[in-house]
Amino acid sequence: MDINALFTDEGLRAFTATVRDQHVRDAQQYGQIADIVRSRLQQTPIEGDRWMAKRLRAWKVARQLKAMQKASTEAAAKAEALYATYVNEVLELPQRRATAEAKRLERKQGRQAAVGAAVAGSLNRTVTALSTPQEQPGGTVPQARPAEFVAPDNPWQQWPMAAGGERPTSTINDYFAKGDGK
């Protein structure tokens, strides 16, 4: 047998078909032999047998042949499973990977298009909101302080001072205690 032929679709198919057919024939023979052995042992008494001893002995021996039949049937099924797994995991794998990659790219492009559309929509709403004058309905609180609170000559008195402060700090260093350089 050429081992390289097993790595082709036709070669593995031929091998698994041969093995499957052999195991199916073996299973049939084991089943027929089990029936014959069981019948013969049930009809053959051995000196000192009790009334069910023949049947029990026939069942015990035939049970081993039935186990062989079951193992051969499972081996035939495993031969078919071998071919199916080879086709699924080796032969069809590149095609499945290409299909999955195409789907992944399609989803990615769809997400990018959705993000682009959301950004464009947001920008359109922002431009529309900024370009149209908004009239304030009556009875609402204005967002900005009225102009009369702001003293044009001293911007620090625009808002009320905290208790105890004469002037606001002029730099960030005023907020932190100065260390002695350690």
Give average pLDDT, whole number.
82
The sequence of SSEs as H and E is: HHH
Oligomer: single chain
Question: What proportion of the residues is helical, as a percent range?
Answer: 55-70%
Structural class: mainly alpha
Number of strands: 0
N-to-C CA distance: 85 Å
> What fraction of the residues are assigned to beta strands by DSSP?
under 5%
State the gist of this model:
This protein is 62% helix and 0% strand.
Q: Mind explaining what this structure looks like?
A:
This protein is an all-alpha fold and 182 residues long. Helix content is 62%, strand content 0%. It has three helices and no strands.
Topology summary:
Elements (H helix, E strand, L loop, with lengths): L8 H35 L9 H39 L1 H39 L51
Helix pairs in contact: 1-2
